[in-house]
Amino acid sequence: MIQRIQTLFLVIVALMAGVLPFIFSLWINGDGVEFFAKNELWISIVFYASAVLAVISIFMYKNRQNQFVVNRLNMILNLFLLGFFVYRSLSLSGETIVSEKGIGMLIPVFSIVFLVLANRAIKKDEDLVKSVDRLR
Asked: Could you tell me the pTM of the whole model?
């Protein structure tokens, strides 16, 4: 059932992870050079992996437990990326020339929020199916 609310949340995560890091800058160096996800290979791979996991999770609607697990893996991947961004932002602030943090650093935070909302909706669906099975 693709028309469920968690599908909307997962599409938002896929779009945020697959498109936004390449549009919005992650940070701006002291030289004024904007840094995007496409400037470093492993950051773009992690963002693309997060988008692919969200798309895979959309099409796993028949197996809710596996969909839940894939979303958790995606959350762990986004937490790893967020940890790197926090480390990077803390190391940026000690420069002699002040650099700016970009709005792109918040993309993993928003992705995690939408993944949690999707998992909550999946859990509600699973509980509903279990309650209906109990009535039979």
From this structure: 0.86
